[in-house]
Amino acid sequence: MFYRESGDFKTSYAADQQTFPIRFDRIVIALVLVFAFAVVPFFINDYWEKSILLPFLVWSLAALGLNILTGYCGQVSLGTGGFMAVGAYACYKLTTGFPDLNIIFVILLSGGITALVGIVFGLPSLRIKGFYLAVATLASQFFLVWLFNKVPWFYNYSASGQISMPERTLFGTAVTGSAATPWATYLFSLLFVVVFAFIARNLTRGRLGRSWMAIRDMDIAAEIIGVPPLQAKLSAFAVSSFYIGLSGALFFGVYLGAVEPTEAFGIDKSFLVLFMIIIGGLGSIFGSFVGAAFMTLLPVLFKNIMVGGFGWPTDMVQHFIFMLVGGLIMFFLIVEPHGLAQLWRVTKEKLRLWPFPH
Amino acid sequence: MNSTRKFGDPILAVNNISLSFGGVKALTDISFDILQGEIRAIIGPNGAGKSSMLNVINGFYQPQEGEVWFDGKLRGPLRPYEIARQGIARTFQNIALFKGMSTLDNLMTGRITKMHANMFWQALWKGKAENEELEHRERVEHIIDFLEIQAIRKTPVGRLPYGLQKRVELGRALAAESKLLLLDEPMAGMNLEEKQDMCRFILEVNDQFGTTIALIEHDMSVVMDIADRVVVLDYGKKIGDGYPDEVRNDKDVIDAYLGVAHD
Amino acid sequence: MSPMILNTIEVMLNGLMTGVMYSLVALGFVLIFKASGIFNYAQGVMALFAALTLVGFQSGQIPFSHLINVVFGTDYHNWGPGMNAFLAILLTMAVMVLLAWLVERLVLRHLVNQEPIILFMATIGLAFFMEGLGDMMWGANIKVLDIGLPSGGSFWWEDVTRVWATEGSDYYGMYIDVLDLWAAGIAIVLVVALTLFSQYTKTGRALRAVADDHQAALTVGISLRTIWIVVWSIAGFVALVAGIMWGSKSGIQFSLSLIALKALPVLILGGFTSIPGAIVGGLIIGVGEKLFEFTIGPLIGGATENWFAYVLALVFLMFRPQGLYGDKIIERV
C-alpha cells in the first residue's frame, strides 16, 4: 500500500495522458527535483562533483540517447563514443570560433551538429539490420575518432593534439573552465538533463515514439500499416545523436575540461553506454538513469571498498569490475532483459498490494 | 449474405497481375475487382497465392506485370506506407502486432497516417501534438469499446492470449479508418466462439462504417456466410470468381479442393 | 620490375599474411554462428584468454596468484619451472573445453529462443567477463609467447626477390616474416581439417544438421547441448591457434582482443555462415587496409588501418547486405 494507483481516477483522456499519470509518481519526482535543485548545490563538494554527480548526469544523457535508438527504435549502435566526440569537438570549435555565443546555445548547437552526423551514419540502417548494423556503426566510431586525431583543424592546430575548454559564464558565474565551482557545473548539467529527460519522455510516448517502437517490434508490419521507415529510423538516429552530442559536449566542456580523442571517446565508451541501458532497462527513460547511476557508482563503490578497505591494487580491482560487469550483463539478459527498470515495476506491483499479498 | 445487396463502383481492381520470385511463379495473370462496400473473400488451397495477392494489393510485393487501380486511379509503384496512407489497412496471417507496446499504443499506431504534429510540439506535449493525441485517443477508444477490449487497454500485447491478439490486430487495422480493409485469415486457429465474435465484428464493421473488406479465410462455412463475392485461386491462377453459391458448385473449384491430378 | 611495384607487392603480401590472422578469428565466429545462430563477440577475447593461459602454463605460473597474494598476504608466483609447449597446449585446450561447457551450462542454456541481438549482447558481457578473468588469473602485464615457432625475416625470400628488381636499382629484396608463413600454413591445415571433420564424421554431420535447422535436428535425436559444447570447444581451439599466432607475433596484450573487432567487418564481407567467406573476407581486408595505408594513408595523415575495414564493410553492406557468399534475403510477412 506504499505505492498506489487506486483511488486515482481519471475523468478525461487528457488526465490519463499527462506526463506522469500517477499522482504518487508526480509527488516523488517533484520531491527529487526540489532536492536536486535546491538542496544538493549547498552541500556539493569537489569529490562528489567530479566522481559521482557530473559523470552520472553526463552518462544519463548519453544513455537516454542510446536508449532512444536501441531501446525504443531497436537499432543497436556501437558508435556512441564517436558521436560523443562529435559533440565535444563541435562544442570546442563553437566556443573558440564564436567567443560571444552563449554557452547554452553552444551546447545545444553541438547536439544539433551531432544529430546531422548521426543522420549520415544512420543512412545504412535503411538497408541493414541487427548486428550487421551494429558492425556498421563501428565504422562511425573508429572513423570519427581517427578524424579528430588526424585533422588539425578540429583541435585548432594545438601542439598536443588535445582540446581544452576556455572559461564561459552564465549569468556571471563560470560554468566551464578551471574556475567553475562544483555547484555551478552541477546545476548547469542538471538543467540540461532534466529538460531533456522530460522531452525524451514526451517524444517516446507520442506519435514519433510509437513509430520507433513499431519499427523495433516488427519493421515490415510497421511499414505496411503506414509507418515510413526512412523517417522513423532517421529521426531516431537524429534524436539519439542529439542527446549523445549534448552528453559529449558536457563531458568535454563541463566535466573534463580537456580531452584527447582516443582516450576519452574510445570504443570502451560505446560499450559502457550500451551496458547502462541493458542493465537499466531497454526502452525505458527511468532505466537510462538507473543504468547510468549503476555504472557510475559501481566502480566508485568497489574502488572505495577494495582499494580503500582491503588494500587491493587498483588494476586488480579494475579486472574484478570487468568480471562483475560482464557477469551482470549476462545475468540481466538471462533473468530480466528489461533491466532494473522492470525489477522496479515488479516491486511496485508488490508494494501496491503490501502488506496483503493476496 | 444474400446476393441482393447493392454495391457501388469498384474501389480496387487488379488487372492481369503476375508475380514471381526468381523462377517461381506465385501469381499468374490474375484479374478481379472489389466493389465499394462489399465483403470479398479470397479462397484457395495452401500455397495458392492468396497472401501474395494481398501483399501485391498493399504494395509489399511489386508484381512484374499487371496494374492495380485503387479508388478510381491507376496506382504507380508506391512504397507500402504510401499505400497505407491512400487508405488500405490490413491484418496478417501470423499476428504482426507490436509486442512491446500496449493495446492502446498498438491502436494509436494504426492511426499514424492521420497524425501530423511536428517534433517540436511533440517534444513539449503541447499545442497541436496534445490536441491530436487526445482527438485520436477518443477515436481509438470507440474502437476499443466496439471490440470489447477495454480491460486490456494498457496491457502489453505480448502478454495477451492468441484470440485477443487477433482482435487487437483487427482493432489496429480498423483504427486506420481505411477505405479498404484486408484481413489475412482473421479466424485461423480460433475456437468456435471466438470465430463467431470475429464474424460479428467483421459484419458490423462492414455494416456500420461501410468499410470494404477483402478477406482470406479457410473456413468455408464462414466464407459462404459472410462473403458477398468470392475469388478462388489455385497454383497462382484464378479458377473461380462469383457469388458464393456459384463458386460452391463450380467444377474447377471442387476439383482444386478435393484434389484432382494435375497434368 | 621497378622497386615501386615490388614495394607494392610486398605490402600486398604482408596484407595477405595479416588477412590470414583475421580469417583465423573470423573462422571461430562462423563456426559458432552456423551451429547456434549466436554472433559470438567474445571470440577475440577467447583468443586472448587462450594465449594467456598457454603462457601461464608454460611458465609455471599459479593461476590467481595475485589475488591469492593480496588476500592472504603470501608471495606465491610460480609452482615450478614450467612445462614444455606441447603439454601446455594440451592443458590449455582442456581449459577451453571446460570453458565451452561452462558457457553452455551457465549462459546459453538460459538464452535459448532469445532474439539474436540479445544473444549478441550477452556475448559482449561474456567478453568483458573473460577479459577480467584472464587478467585476474594471469596478471595483466604484457607477456611473450614463444612455443618454438621460427620468426624473423625470411632470407630465402629476400634473396629470391632481390634479383627481380631492375638492374642497378637500390633494392634489397622483400621482407616477409617466417612466422607469417607458418601462420598461413597452419591456417590452411586448420581449414582443411575442419572441412574434413564436418564432412566425414558423425559429429560433423550432426553439426551441419543443427546449423540447417535446430528443431529438425532435435527431432532426429541430436542433442543440441552436446553440439553446442562441441562447437564452442572447436571455436576455443581455433581461438587458441589464433592466440598463439598473434601472441607469437606481437606479444600477448590487451589489444589482442581488438582483433576480434576487425573480424566483424571480415564476416560482413564474407557472410556469417560461410567458411570460405571468412577466409576470403579476411584476405580482402588484410590486403585492402595495407594497400590503402600504403597508397592513400600518407596523404590523409596515416593510421587508416583503424577504420578502413569498417568503412569498407559499411560501403559493401549498402550494395550487398547479405555478404559475398550469403543467400539473398527475401522478406516475408
The total domain count of chain C is 1
User: Which percent range fits the helix content of chain C?
Assistant: 55-70%
The second-level CATH architecture of the largest domain in chain B is 3-Layer(aba) Sandwich
> Please, what is the CATH homologous superfamily of the largest domain in chain B?
P-loop containing nucleotide triphosphate hydrolases
Q: What is the terminal separation of chain B in angstroms?
A: 36 Å
Q: What is the name of the CATH topology of chain C? A: ABC transporter involved in vitamin B12 uptake, BtuC
Instruction: Quickly name the level 1 CATH class of the largest domain in chain B.
Output: Alpha Beta
The fold-level CATH name of the largest domain in chain B is Rossmann fold
Rg estimate of chain C, integer Å? 21 Å
Q: Sheet bearing the most strands of chain B, described?
A: 6 strands, mixed
What coarse outline of chain B follows from CA principal-axis ratios?
A: globular
Gist?
The complex is a heterotrimer of chains A (358), B (263) and C (333). Chain B is an alpha/beta fold and 263 residues long.
Pick out its properties:
heterotrimer; A: mainly alpha; ABC transporter involved in vitamin B12 uptake, BtuC; two-stranded antiparallel ribbon; 4 strands; B: 263 residues; alpha/beta; 2 domains; four-stranded antiparallel beta sheet; 10 helices
